[in-house]
Amino acid sequence: MTAADLLGAALLSALVLYALLGGADFGGGIWDLLASGPRKAEQRALVERAIGPIWEANHVWLILVVVVLFTAFPPAFAAICIELFLPLVLLLVGIVLRGASFTFRAYVGSGDRAQARWGLVFSASSVLAPIVLGVVVGALASGRLGAAAHGAATLAWLAPFPLAVGLFAAALFAYLAAAYLAVEAEGALREDFRRRAIGAGAAVFACAALAGALSWREAPLVFAGLTRRSWSLALHVATAAAALTAFAALFRGRVRAGRAAAALQVALIVVGWGASQYPYLVVPDVTLASASAPRAVQVALLWALAAGGAVLFPMLAVLFRVFKGERAFSVVDRSR
Amino acid sequence: MSDLLAARWLFGISLAFHIVFAAVGVAMPLFMVLAEWRWRRTGSAAHLELAKRWAKGTAILFAVGAVSGTVISFELGLLWPRFMAFAGSVIGMPFSLEGFAFFAEAIFLGIYLYGWERASPRLHLASGAVVAVSGAASAFFVTLANAWMNAPAGFRVEGGAPADVRPFAAMFPPGWSHEVVHVLLSCYAATGFAVAGIHASFLLRDRANAFHRAALRIALGVGGAAALLQPVSGDFSARQVAAVQPIKLAALEGQFETERGAPLRIGGLPDPERMETRWALEIPYGLSLLAFHDPGAEVKGLRAFPREAWPNTRHVHLAFQVMVGLGSLLAAVAAAGAALRLLRREPPRWYLRAVALAGPAGFLALEAGWLVTEWGRQPFTVHGILRTADSVTPVGGLALPFAGFTALYVLLGAVTAVVLRRQIARAAPGGGP
Ligand code: HDD
Ligand code: HEM
Ligand code: HEM
After folding, report:
1. Is the ipTM of this complex over 0.85?
2. Which of residues 304-323 of B touch A (CB under 8 A)?
3. What is the pTM of this model?
4. Would you tell me which residues 190-219 of chain A have a C-beta closer than 8 angstroms to some C-beta of chain B?
5. How far is CA B189 from CA A122, B37, B221, B330, in A?
């Protein structure tokens, strides 16, 4: 393991956490858009209550990914920003509108038209941002960004595989959010989100199949990772087991177990992407090694991350403890 | 509009927008914690009300600060990829540490805002204190990155790339302490006067209102102290500039000739064609005295440097005059307030009116100061090493994102103002709906 490998692992871990935490906040926005039925208002209120205190903290994982990327692998950051200029700008627009409108909606004063309008901006941008994020990931993995050497923005991301990954990301985030919200809701509202989690789980499956099939032609490295590497099978089995557990638990109403299994499933999917792309940061010509900053920088950064993490995780534990109750992360469904 | 110009405008506008919310994010948590602390000590209802109202305002401004900061962290790469490819490894350390400060800030602000009932009193007050400290820490770290751009250190250039990088030496370049102190003070001064201005204008209508009196004491106490220190700290900054960026000093002062016993110019308009600064009030030996603490010291003029290394001296000089002028004004208002306090006099009407009028001056000075620093560093992104023209992205058509983001900022700024106004109108007990 070189310092670059360790930093690659740190980047991937931060992305996993961003998906599990920040991703679920976007998913909440998707359910705001799709709120329906007799408990429409309650669904929206629950989404707002669930993400209000924590979305800003969850969002910082993305910032951490950006700063670690440009500190440890500066040429990769430059290449990504040049080649994926347009989708990244769209991602920013989505992030800005989501965060700002969520806050405006909460503080603009209740009951008037302005509130409804900001609610719509909030939910629409919560759909936009995950799709674009998925497109960026799909484009990085696809191997179609060969223009790094030419230093030009490309439209290579505008292809079936990245777009399918975009849909996949949105489905994953919606699935996570529903699984989390089912735990936080009670009674009929819990039923609503339990059923939504199962539906979104089916959508995740469909999107995964689509992206997997497209990867055969459009993202050979990912496809090889999915099928032919030594660890492919083990990872598949683990992901499938997590998915089945999540489904079974959600069907039987064991929402805490379902939430844990769904989170594990999503984490394994992100890890699977990272592993299949290793050692590339941008397929096919930027690798961890080729983009590495001087070793002194990478080693210092590793120490900084270790020190920061030692402070950060206890702080996060306090946050979730305060807002998600004593058993914030429990997987055991007690009958009440 | 050329792509380079569009990139400069877009980045400048993004930072000018973000810095307002960032400064508020540094200072406002301190104010709200002071209010809550006072309530817990004395049981004063006005202070509890104040802490809650200020927390709401902070929540709105913090969210806009967080998203606009995110835009900047991506724009560093989207607009200046070659700068980041060159400098990312050297200045990444403060940015990475800033990331952890953001975490602390966001986590404990969440607890503070939503935890009035859920967290214990002690955890609640402590959370506010952590937000105040980590807000200052994030400003501290990001300013170190800016200090490095002004005085690059901790590496060698070898074949166009940095070599021998020493991340912790790069993190503390020469003069870092002056810039960090000046920037932190500016956050407290600007926010303090803006908040004090709002409450002073309410007090002009309702002199006995306990809520607004409490607010004015806290905001003006912190903001006034910072404003009094600001000229002292600015003097250190100026001497630092004189030592490491003589060309920036010459542009700040509109100094074209190299001379001993250079005068300090107040106002005036530099004319780069005729190489002189006209219509300025000149104080003999002033500049040599201020910049080097020696009336006979030699000050290098712009003519000592090649023309293509000059910043736009007109812009830089004017922005500097605005900052120093407003800074002197704020210091005067703060001194008058301190005198009234010593004499134990109630703030008279004229003083409240002065504070209300001075409200926007802090933020104007802060924006002007940043323009001095950023414009004064031109044509370089990294002083003496990497030119702005060599930093910019090869992606074309930047006028479009520039127009789009500008429209977005105008919208966000307007809506933030409306939402805040509603909160403030509601916050005025006895006044407003
Ligand atoms: C409330 C805001 C405020 C006020 C009242 C002042 N400043 Fe300032 N000044 C800033 C806010 C600011 C700033 C925005 O924070 C800057 C930009 C970068 C920096 O280091 O601080 C700045 C930069 C800055 C610089 C350039 C530093 C550099 O480029 O490295 C100098 C020489 C001064 N200031 C000097 C002064 C003096 C002599 C003041 C006397 C009244 C003064 N400032 C008041
Ligand atoms: C290149 C310049 C800058 C970058 C890349 C940057 C980046 C960011 C980012 C990513 C955030 C969001 C954090 C979150 O999600 O909570 C943020 C917020 C913040 N930034 Fe900046 N920033 C820059 C300049 C500045 C400057 C000059 C200051 C201080 C003087 C500052 C102080 C802050 C503070 C205090 C916050 C959080 C508080 C709030 O949002 O109100 N930033 N910044
Ligand atoms: C610590 C924080 C800051 C950092 C790290 C930073 C960094 C940069 C960088 C990398 C550039 C682009 C290259 C260049 O033109 O030199 C730039 C330009 C610029 N920045 Fe900053 N900046 C900071 C704070 C600010 C603030 C608060 C303002 C607000 C007014 C500002 C205004 C500008 C402007 C106007 C430009 C364009 C300058 C020109 O090209 O004439 N900056 N800055």
Report:
1. yes
2. none
3. 0.95
4. none
5. 34, 21, 10, 8
